[in-house]
Request: fold
Amino acid sequence: MMAFGKHGKVISPALTYSDHLHYAEKLGVAVYRVPLRDDMAIDLEALARAVDDSVSLVYLCNPNNPTGMAIDGDELRSFCREVAPRVPILIDEAYNELTDKPDYTSMVDLVRGGGNILITRTFSKIFGMAGLRVGYGMGHPDIVRVVNDNVMAWRNGVGLYAAYHSYLDEDFIAFSRDKILQGRKMVNATFRRHGLNRCLRRRVLSTPTFNAMQTSSRPKWPPAT
Reply:
C-alpha cells in the first residue's frame, strides 16, 4: 500500500478488509472509499469511474472480507483490462483457495500476461498459520521491485520455511478446506434455523466462510470520501 500510495491516493470499496488502509492513512496516504452496490457486491463500475490522474492504486479483496462475496471472474477481468493500463491494481486473494472455482475467480492469468496487477495471498487462512504472519505476492517484475523497495529489511525465516513445506502438503490443504466448508454449512444452517435470510448475489460462485446477512435494518454505507 505504501509502495504506491505515496504517489497518489488509493481507492477501494467502502466495506472491505481495511487494516492496511488504516495503516496507510496514518502514514499520510489518502484513501477514497467507494460504496458497495445495493446487493452488497463491490461496484466495479463506480470504482472504474473513480479512477483519475490522482489515483495511484486500486485495492480489491476477492472474495471480499467481510461480506464473503466473490466477484464474477469475467467481470473482474474486464475491469482489470480497462483500469490496469492506467493504474496498478492490488487484489487481495486471501480466501481464494476456499472458492468453488479458484482458477476462475483468481486473476493470476492476467499477471502471467504481464498485466499491471499485484496479487497477494496469505498462509493465515487455509494453511492455518496466522501466528507466523507469512504471505506472498505475484506480479510483474517491475511491480515486485517497487514492493521490495518498501518492505521491512528482516524476514521471518522460520515462517518462510514452514510456509514452503505447508504449501507442498496437499493432503493438509484438502483437510483444511473440508473442515472450513463444514463450518460454513454449520453456520448457514444456524442462520436458517433462526430465520436469518442470506443476502446472495445470484452470480456469486461461492462464499468462503460466511454470507452477509439481510436483516430488517440494512446498514447504511458511508458516502464516497
